[in-house]
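seq:
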Amino acid sequence: MTVKAYVLLKVSSGTERDVCQKIGEFDEVSEASIIYGEYDIIAKVSVDELNSLEAFISENIRSIKDAKGDAAVMLTSTMIVAREYKGKEKRNPTGT
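struct:
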């Protein structure tokens, strides 16, 4: 069973673009965006099982470093998707 989640990240000031690009390179991440508000980045993640989600966040996302070699990700908050509904683009991809 595929586990989908949204991972919200607070990162070191000035590292938003670099961290977002690095996160977007992982196969498990389908989307990564810089956002305004309490968090800096949101990533949509898909993994095979719940244990894989914990490992992916701990070993990959939280280990991202800034240019100085310091931890760039200060805080993460993970929201696991319980049920997903199709948006307009998915319902009618031809636009007609």
